[in-house]
Each structure stands twice: as structure tokens, then as C-alpha cells.
Amino acid sequence: MRGDFQSRLRRSLRRRDSARASIDPTEVEDFDQRVADEIDAELLEETPEDAIFLDLETTGLRADRSLTALIGILYRENDSMRLEQWYSGDVVAERRQLQRLQQYLGRFRTIVSYNGNGFDVPFLRTRWRWHRIADPTVSMESLDLLVPVRKKYRGRWSDCRLATVERELLGLPRCAQDLPGSEAPLRFQDLREGGPVSLIEPVLLHNRRDLMSLVALRKVLLGVTITDQEAAASGGQRHDLEAVCSPARNRSSKQEPS
Amino acid sequence: MVFDLNLLNTTRGNRRNSPAEILEGVRSRLAGDDELVALRTLEPREAIEADEVPQLDPRLLEHLQSKGIWPLYSHQAQAMNSVLQGKNIVVASSTASGKTLCSTVPVLDSMIRDAGAHALFLYPTKALSQDQHRHLREFIDGVGLALETGIYDGDTEPVLRKSLRRSGRIILTNPDMLHTAILPNHGGWAALFSNLRHVVIDEVHTLRGIFGSHVACVLRRLRRICRHYGSDPVFIAASATIANPGEHVEKLIGQPVQTIEEDGAPRGRKHIALWNPPVIRRDDGTKSRRGPASVAVRLLPELVRRGLRTICFARTRNRVELILRYIRERARGAIDREQIASRIEAYRGGYLPSERRRIESQLFGGDLGGVVSTSALEVGIDVGGLDGCIVVGWPGSVCSFLQQAGRAGRSQEESLVFLIAGQDPIDQWFIRHPEALFGSSPENAVIETENPYIVARHLICGAYELPICAADSDLLGPQVVAMCTVLQEEDRLREEAGSWYLSGDEYPAAQVPLRTASEDNFTILEIGPDRIIGELDYVAAMVSLYEGAIYIHRTETFIVEEMDHINFLVKIRRTDTGYYTQALTKKRITVGEVWATKEGDGSSLRLAEVEVRTRITGFKKVRFHSVENVGYGDVDLPPLELDTVSHEIRLGAATLRAADRFGTGFLRSGMHGVARLFRDLLAIRAMCDPHDLDHHVEADVMHIYDLYPGGIGYSELGYEKHRQILEDVLEALVECECDAGCPSCVLPGSSRVESALEKEVMEYPYPKEATRWLIHRITGREEYEPDLSAVKAIEVESPGAPEPTLDARTERKIRKVARWKSGRRNG
Questions:
Q1: Where are the alpha helices (H) located in B501-651, listed in sequence order?
Q2: Using CB atoms, which residue from B185, B483, B641 is nearest to A65?
């Protein structure tokens, strides 16, 4: 008596949305390269193969209403370092990238980041959960370099932002053209709304720069102050991603933006 | 059943101005001899106390005892026990029977036991959540609990919003807000959804028809989000007394519920009077019934004068404005009358929130003696203990009537209720069958959970919240994957690895209204003072506001000077016109897929999908009071399309031939008569708002169809109950006291304004006889011999009562039809 539900449904949609233009998801190719030249042999040698350096650029700070627009990863592949930057312009693309990241992470033991415990990892976890993808980080370690930096230099420096650390510890001031991280969401939005890909080039550069710094910073921090084990002990939460990232703990141990 | 006309004998009149005395006074001063057709006194009733009391936290118990709400009534204890055992329940008991406690107590009990527990309370209106929050807050503070609670709706301040999201333990909101603001932003509500123990749905009987069908989808989305965060709340619903509370709530939430229908609450004495305004002979010699509003205009100030704090309910907001306007006009010149009139205010949606709050608080505080209200104040609110209630015209359902009547006489005080019947067939049906108002078998709440128009829209909303996958089929329906596939073909969703995502960058919930037709509001700007005086939703604006239309706001008239469709702005100028405007429409129906057919007497019946095309061809100007036509205007709007389901009655060849001897005007007039009455009487059975249906006559076919895209199940019921409804039609016709036909039976009238009929039908003098002849044909009765020499029917143009600018039926009708327009525009 009810008629053919499918055809009714189809008709209801067609009539309502006949004029609707389909929006092309913004497809941007991966940015992928070897960065052997920029990392000297000694540094390469001291970087373990089971560590992956991670830095996200997102469309906003709240994981429940933002996308992981850019996933930047850097890892050692035999005798060179490999840097990959994966862009997603919408939720479907994000799903593919997150799925891919999940598979990638299986090959590594440690995620090295700057403020990863405070931002990148919980953000990813929320997004994975939203997409109903299993969270691969439960069996991984997190080396958040902000933790030792803060422990050692809080109060001595004006702030603990990565740029400051680079200047103070690595002797590498950022160039004037460096894009402030806060501007990235706007660039992504412009791109999504049809702007040229060149819009996000500064974001890619910034992300790449951050990742490269992490490699050097890891070494310096290990040399100057602490070993991996000490970093683990400091704050006691490095190896305990579950505790760090669970909503309750996360709120209480909320950290300032790096 | 006995209707006692000598109330003074049965009530002790030892108090000055007791409701009974006032009723007697009204009867002798205002009402004509035959006008009060039924008086009935509902006698006081003793409380039934609970014998098995729930195990509550001592603090709660102590508070209940100290407040004198202990021992509990039987139904309260039963409800609390069930909730404490984790069962979904619906409590269906009378107004003011302490239903609120059935949810408050177990919810607070769980919060005392579990410091993380959260709860969500849903109310159908903002006014109700205001009121309930006050009570809840008092209760919580009385118990001495530190719980953050608050109302989250369109009026909530941003700062409070933020804190409620973060740390609110009990959130009070409405289904619309849940749908457009909370569910789509569930990430911000993680604390709530991770720990949601109870969902309380108040006035669940109001969640029926179109609104209810939408809310059923919203609640499925809610449950999906809860599951995502790992919670599985218990639902506690409260309903007025309807015939199917359990079935209704099970359909609504998609889970089994326990029904608690016994009612242990005591009640005060209540006098109910049914007032049928007299049929009067007009100057042109025709007869028609006086409008109910004109009675209310005299009655309300009289009750206020006698110290009865009274609420007067009218169906449309225009009628509310008109009643107040006439009361003020009548009072002019007499100081005492003006004083009374100044203590009467209007209350309706469409006012700015601040204006509404002011009126509410004055009413609570007693500064106001009476208010004229739309149904916004119908549910749940204890408006500071009112003594009297006037219901102007049939409010649409028995349930609604009892709710409105329940506004008066809280706290077991004696109270007085008037129902003033309109001339519509439904009103007159209840005048003939008053026992239906007091009997124990009121109405069924009907919802349709399979309307693709509704379901598909909520799937899109759901996909925004969380990708949809096959595992959701237990909540979203077994067809979820099939539906997503279709939505994908139509480019609304995209599939990736077994999950469906929204294909565009949109916020779909904002485009799916749950109860009004359109997605955008027009802002109404008064030129001159350049102030914003209100808002109107898109479709209502399209049919009631066009250049040249008259807008009524708080008894003042404004002319529409400009419609700015780009900025959604209507510019109006204050002007004293003396007339109001009414849209004229033309319709066409195309039949699509046929669902079912059967043979009837002298006719064949079909249930089919149809497309209805409506064009607004212009408008007419109608003078206040006299309802004279004083001119016409043009409107240039594209046609509005509605895809719906229709019950179609096609007359057989023999019937057509037999009608030949009376001329074409005869048959067409009869077809209109049958269709009009059929539609109204179907509305009683379908327990729906009669404005949810429409009819159309084309060639040899009568259509009675749902006024909602995809249909809501009403015309299906008409198809099933075809024969019984035809019997009701005949009864209404035979029992009507008019001569040749009137708006109470076969004619269009004040509240039955419809598409412009051809002259031939409009002027046909014997519509009642024609209708009766046709009914006899299509019910297999003996041929009826029409008397075509009787007194002529009254003119269609003189319905006799002051009427609003655009009557509710037309407004609703076009509103819904116009949905297509807004859908396209947004495409």
C-alpha cells in the first residue's frame, strides 16, 4: 500500500535539489620528498628508524568541528629522511588520509612531536573515533618534546614556542616570511572555497620547517639534558598515551599552546 | 450523561464571585436562551496514595515530606519505581496530576548516586522550559543539591551556553534546538553525551503529526550520538490522556516503554460550559451562526471585571490580535471598561522575546487580569493559578481542549471553562456530541516514521553529525544502506569505505525545520521609526506578506511596502486601513503512482501519490467587522508545488448521468460539499489538525489529501475509513439547522477559505440538497429527491464573524505547499 519507497525517496530528493551544483572536493596531491641533503649524516645516524615525527595543520582548534587538513610526517628510511605531507580538503579525503596514517603508524614505535600530547594526538584520536577508525596510537609511545623543554626552560625564556626553542637551542631564527600557525586555517578555507593551491604553500613550508626542527631538537634535547628514559620519567606520562589523552585527564593537564 | 443546567443547586454559592455564580451571571447577562448548550460540573476527586513507595535518597525523601508532597500519588510511585529499575516509561495522566515529579525525582536520585550523571529535558515550547526550569531549580535548591542546570534555547546568552556545554548537568531544551544546535555540535557536548542517563520528554502527545514524525527522527539521531559516546539513556515521557500513549512513545523513541495510565491525583471542582453562538438572520435574509470571537470579545472583559483571572485561547495569532483589538475598541469611551481592557494583553509567538517575557511576568505577578493567547501557553504552564479559561473555537483536538481547560483551576481550586463553538462542522460535531469531550476514549497521536521526505532529510543531518554505516540500521531503520545509496546517487552523500559522508560543505540541520515550513525568517521592519517589530518564517511570509498586503501587529495595521527577498526584509508602514487582505489561489492535481484501489457505491476509490500545483493569483481586501470585499490586488509569484498522497473519490458513470437532470452546478456543488465535510470529519478520526488536510474537486473526482510532502498518513486513514466517514458526513448534513447550506455544513466559510471557486458553484442556490443527493448515491442509499425550491443558501461572502487577515487553514495550506519553493531556492 505504501508504494515503492526507493522511488519515492529518489523523487523527493530530485525535486528538492534538482538545481544543486555538485561541489568538487578539492584534491591536492601529496607533497612527498626526500630531505637527505638538509639533514647531516650524524643527525641521521642518531635518529632511530622506529620514530615518526608528526605535525598536524588543522582547520581549527576544536577536533569536533575541524578537519586535519594537513598531516606532516617525517621518518627515517634507510639512509635518508623522508618527508610526507598529506592534504585533505573534506571529510571524505580526511578519512582516506587518516586510514592511511593508521596503517603507516603500525610500522613505528614512537611519535615525536611538539605539544603532541596537548594537541596533535588527542586531535587525531577524536577524528579517528569520529570516522570509526581504530586508534593506532594506543600501542605507541609519544615523545612530546614540549615536556622536557618546559621542564627545563620555563621561566627562563619568554615562552616555549617552537620558534623560540629553535632560536635558543638550535641557533636558527625563523625567517620573517614564516607563516604564523594561526593563519593556516584561513588559508585552508580559502583553498576549499576555490582559491589556488599556491595559497597553502606557506603552510606546507611552515609544516616542513617544524618537522625538520623536531629531528634536530630531539637530538639536542637528548644531548643537553635528558635521555629518552628521563624524558619518559618527566611528567610520567610520555609512554602513557591513554592517560594523557583521555578526556578527563586531558582537561586537567591542559597545556598552553606551544 | 447528564448536563446540569441548574448549577446553583449543586454548588455552594457562599463565596462572593465564585466561578459558579459568575457562570450564572454570564448565563443571564450575556448568553441567549439556547446558547449554553451543555453545562457540566466535574466534581472534586480524592487522591489515591501510593502503597509501594520507591527507595529514594534520604535528602529527596525529606524534601518531599517537608513540602507536603508525601505520600506520593499511586501513579507517581509506580513511575519512579520503573525509572529506578531502568525502564523507559510514559506517564499519561490528567493535567496537574504531578507528572513533573515522576521525572524530576528519579533523575535527581540518579544524580545523587552518580556524580557524573547528566540529563536532558525536552519541552515543546520555550515558554514551557522557562516555567519548568523555575520549578526544577526551586526543587533542587530545596533539596540542597549543587547541580548546574539551565535552559539551552535560542534565547540563551552565549556565556551561559558555554558553561552549560561544559558543566551543565541538566539541560532543558526543545526538539528544534536539539536538532539544529546540540546534535550537530555533539563534540562540544561530550560531557553530556558521555554520561547521559535520562532523557525526559514532556507533553509527548504534542509530538504528533508532522512535528512528531520529525522528532522521531531527531530522537533516533540522539540515540546514535549517545551510543557513539557510550551512553544509553532511559526515556521518561509525560503525556496528556490520549488513547495510545504507549504505542505513540514506542514509535517516537523506537524502544519499548512501560505505560502508566492510572491517575492518583486529586482534582478541584470545574465547571465546563459549551457555548454555541446563535444563528442569526442577516440583512439579506440569509441565516448564519455568529462567530465565536465576537462572544469572546464580550465574555473575557466580563470575567476579568468579576475578578476571574482568565486565559482566552484562540487558534491563530491574527485572531488573537483581533480579539484584543475589538476588546479595546469596545471599551473606548467608558473609563471602567478601558481600565479592564488595559489589564488584558495578547500573547503569541512572533513577539520579540523581551516582549514575551514581560507579558509572562505580568501574568504571573497578577498585574494582568487576562491574556488572549495562541496555543503557545496551552501546555504545562501553571500560569500562577488561573481561575477561568475561554476556548474560542474548537482547538483542534480533545486533548488540546483538555489542556487548555486545565490551565484554569490549578491547586484544586474551583474553576470555570467556556468552549465557544465556531461554525465549522467539527465544532458543531462536538456541540452535538459533548460526551466526546468528557468520555474516556479521546484521541490517538499519529506519527509517520516512514515518510521519505522526513527520513531522508534526517539522514543527511545525521551524516553531518557522524558518518552513517550499516551498523546504524538498528537505530536508523533497516533500509539505511539503501537510502544512503540513493542519497549518494543524488549527490547528497558520498561513500568511503562503507561509511556515508555529507558530500558538500553545509550545515543541513539549519535547512530542516521541524514544524514550520521554511528555513529562513523574514525580518519585519517598520519604516518611519525604522524599528524591527518581529519575524516571520519564509513561507508564511510568502503567503501573508506581499506588496499591498496588510500585516497586523498588536492590534495595529501595517501595509507592506516592499519585500526584499535578498536580505529577507519586509518593509512595512503603519497605516489605518480598515481592511485586511486575503490571498486567492488556484490549484491543479496530477496523479502519480497509485497505491491502492477499491470500488465504492456509485464511485471508485484510489489512494495515490499526487502532485498539487497551487498558484497565488492575487489577493482581496476585506473590511474589518462587515467582512465586505473592498477590492482586489495582484500578486506575481511562481506556482507552489506539493507532492503528497491523496484519497481520491471518482464518481461512477451512472451517478454522473443521474445528476445530469439537475444541471452541472448541482453536481459540482454537491461534490464540494461532500469533500469539505469529508475532510473535516476525517480530521476528527485522524486526530489531526484539520489544517493538515485539503481537498480539491476536478471534473468527476474529489481529492482529499495530506498537506505535507510525502504524506503523513491521514489520507490513508480516510481511504480505510471511507465508509464510516461518509456516514458522519451525512449526519452532519442532516443535523445542521440551516436551510439550504451554510459554512457549518457544506459551504466554504470564515475558516474554510479555499481556492476561488467557479462562479457557477459559488452561486449555486441549493448546495445542501445537492450534497445530500450525492451522499445517498455514494453510500448506496435510495435515491434522494432534492428539494430545489427551498430557501436559497446564504452567500459565501458573508460568514458573519470578524475574521483574521489570513485564516489559519489557508495559511497552513499554502505554507506547506510552498515548501517546494523554499527547497528549490536553497538548492
A1: 538-544
A2: B185
